Automatic annotation (TrEMBL):
It comes from Caulifigura coniformis. Residues 401-458 form the DUF6798 domain. Signal peptide: none annotated. Keywords: Membrane, Transmembrane, Transmembrane helix. The chain crosses the membrane at residues 12-29, 108-129, 135-154, 166-196, 216-237, 270-287, 299-318, 339-362, 368-386. InterPro entries: DUF6798. The keyword Membrane applies. It holds the Pfam family DUF6798. This is DUF6798 domain-containing protein.
Amino acid sequence: MSLGTSERRKQAIAAFFACWTAFVVYSFLRVPIPGINEPHYLGMAKADWNPGWCQGDLFLTSSRPHRAFYLLIGWLTQTLTLEQTAIVGRIASLALVAWGWSKLGRSLGLAVGGTLLSAVLFLMIQSIGSWSGEWLIGGVESKVFAYGCVFAGWSAMISRRLSAAGLWLGLATTLHPVVGMWATVATLVGLAWMWWRAAGDSAETQAPLPRLPVRLIPSLWWFIAAAPGIGWALPALKSSDAATSKLADFIQVSYRLAHHLDPWTFPREGHLFFATLIVVWLFSALWTRKVAGFRLLDVITGAAVAFGLAATLVSYGPRPWTYPPSEFGALQLKMLKFYPFRLADVMSALIVALGVARLWTMWSPPKVASFGLAGALLAGAIAIPGPDKSPGMLSGANRDDWIATLRWVKENTPANALLLAANEDFAVKWWAERAEYVNFKDCPQDAAGVVEWNSRLLAYSEWVRDSFAQDHVIDAGDLVALRRKTGVTHLIVGRLGPIGPPPAFERGRFKVYELPSPANSGAL
């Protein structure tokens, strides 16, 4: 029996709040604030609104391809702390994801219990593993908002509201160009399939596809919505010269982001887990393919998987990479730096979660069984061990000592201090609120910035090597040399040593050294 408008609205609201609750509970109970990427994104957002904050920091003065996120969230940092901004940002971004997810679930014929179950299954899969390290629910960053728009766009596609789909996917591209572009390309494959099967599918959907001239309107909405994000991302793709661009690609793919970008360095467990998800998807598709919406998502998933597998094949070659790369190697690096695996990661988990939830509801279980199963799976997803539960690989007393050390730096160093965290470097600007000479996590995204970032890491490594070359102890002269070479005023260490001069502060295994000015080095 079909539901009335009022009842459908009630179910839509219930599905949204159920998914939103599950996402928020998972985020706050599993991932401490700040999550692994929150210092990166929220720090840039704060600096975008307040350029004087941590002035002189390499990362904060680099290109801003995620400007939409900074405009959307950054204003909060002017009145709230970074932690408070993260709380508000998580709640808001997960509301958008929950809204898009619940719309997608309803478009596939899932009731409230089934939609919630699919969301929790997705969380469970995310907690267990991934192929390229992609995740969605945890901290707040630009891709979380973007995927919420993507899900809403696919829901509109299933309902044949193509203009709305174009608008949502365009907004996703502005919020996160890489996520939006890959989702758009995969959706175009799905759209081509829809046109090809238009006659056969028209009786199963709410409305037939429009004539060809009208079909071009969605692309106009996409371009309008995506234009700001594309404009903000272009500076990160430009380079003053080809050599700098080639070197930056090499640094990003072979070193800094190999765990996300180079499939031949992914852990074996990741490949096996991804293959398992594909098998489960193909098995569940034997039953879900009778639903038109699932057929469309199957095509989009197939396209995403094909992108990843094609990139894997094309990128085959000897490892480690060598520099300078061959002409073909340079093309391989250029292709891999655009994250061709991240959509396959999300889609494999999404389609399995939705498909299994659909199979569950086909057995017509009692509502209480669906909600009970969802609750148990949510608890399990939160409990599963994972690196996201200890951002920066810091936990317990070490985390407390690290935070106390950085807060001491904030309270006892001048505002123009320049820091270098030698070992652990998680969320330095978050707690210390001082500029950094270089931070491994905070790598710029423009070519010139990437090369400068790498040069600074090499400069630090050379200083360490030279300091230990003579007497295996870092003495006062070495500290002077570091300041002369880099401009760093304060060195934070966890394991580096031994260091001869006494630290200005010590807590647990962490120490802070104030580097003598070269002008005063004669007094040492």
